[in-house]
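Reopening this one. Same input as before:
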Amino acid sequence: MIEKRKVLITVKTYPTLSKKYDELVCTAGFFDNGSWVRIYPFPFRKLDYDKRYKKYQWIELPLQKNRSDPRPESYNVVDINQIRFLGKPIGTKNGWEERKLFILCKNQIYYDLSKLIEKANNNELSLAIFKPHKLIELTVEETDRKWDNDKLAILKQKARQLSLFQTEEEVKREFSIVNKLPYKFSYRFRDKIGKESRLMIEDWEIGALYWNCLKDTNNDEQKAIEKVKQKYFNEFSKKDIYLFLGTTKQFHGWAKNPFVIVGVFYPPHEKQKLLF
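Same output, byte for byte:
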């Protein structure tokens, strides 16, 4: 069943490549009733620039349940050309008041990661808000610097096929591949019951931050990494931080820990009101 739904976008992950769907971005957020929704696959960069949504923006789009994805919140977008913006993104005035009012007041917040994993393995959920008791460290690991050659070859073949029907500029726009991050960023943290865990951060923001920091440091990767740590650990440790967690389709329902961090919500701590 296809329905037009209103969604507040809160999650946009760094792109990955798929042999089947080209370049993918996992997009998630909340329906207007407050329940989670994942829109996947979503070829974000294939949208014309003026049609690309932003985080914390309400959009309306035609959705149907993703029958090939067992995760309960997963939907397909039926036609990306029917996406409609509903106003400007929600800002951060008054200590993120409007964002917090919708996101934190309408959803359950989890403090015990083991209970969250149990619910995911029972297929009760695959997206959640988790509040770590303490951030311990932002870890950085080097990884492959280039996309998989087999996937790239398939995408290039698709581009050649489409070039029979599209202009060169249209092909370039649809098949421009985002740079692959050469590092994996993860949070090491402790939950409310004292259990220590580490989860990878797949948020678009941390990838964009790395590339911006690399540019600012004249391509000095170590200095860029330190700048990322300064923001994501030093600054965020002083915030009222929450993590948007999502399971990966591959590990959902059975893995010891199927979650990754798909977004970071970091409003300032509320100032205590004076009694006198």
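So the earlier flakiness isn't reproducible anymore. For the record, The longest helix spans residues 221-235.
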